[in-house]
Amino acid sequence: LTALRSLYAAALAEQERLALKVFPEQLAAEFLEQIGKVEDFLNGGTDWTQEQIDAVYDELLAAWEALKAYPVNGMYTDVPAGTWYYDAVDFVTRYGIMNGMGGGKFGTEETCTRAQVVTFLWRAAGSPEPESTDNPFVDVPAGQWYTNAVLWAFENGITTGADATHFNPGGTLVRQNMVTFLMRFAKTMGIDTSNR
Length: 196
Description:
Blueprint: H1 2-17, H2 25-43, H3 50-69, H4 86-94, H5 114-124, H6 147-155, H7 175-188
Helix pairs in contact: 1-2, 1-3, 2-3, 5-6
């Protein structure tokens, strides 16, 4: 029973992190259904046989393993298997950090804008709501897909903007900007950056 409870807790945590919309509907539904079955099972009493516990455990594990095995980056025509970035694209898509560019493309040869990069970092942090709605940037209007990400990044010192009143959301990042964002993000996430 301890193993079932541990698997259930891990599956719940994974459910929170996964971008289930990138999986085939039936595969995602099966995973969610098995989580629900385990929850009902655990809340339903205490007279279980070991055979019942094993069966529920095996069903949840099988549904989770099917999700893990599904190549979400297979939806992209520009991410061939065996490329050095194949696993990385799978990871960022699987966990909703990045989306494709539409038309079956990930955009492997595309540059990234400042708005996109802070949005990736914000999603990697769990898409937290900014603590304040005060917006120092005149070029970041309310309600844009990147607004909360920019405000969060500003609050956390990941970006200070292109200048005091402009973020320049459509501007592309050069490598020096990218590494600065990444290091500040690491500090925000509590990662020790002193050994550099």
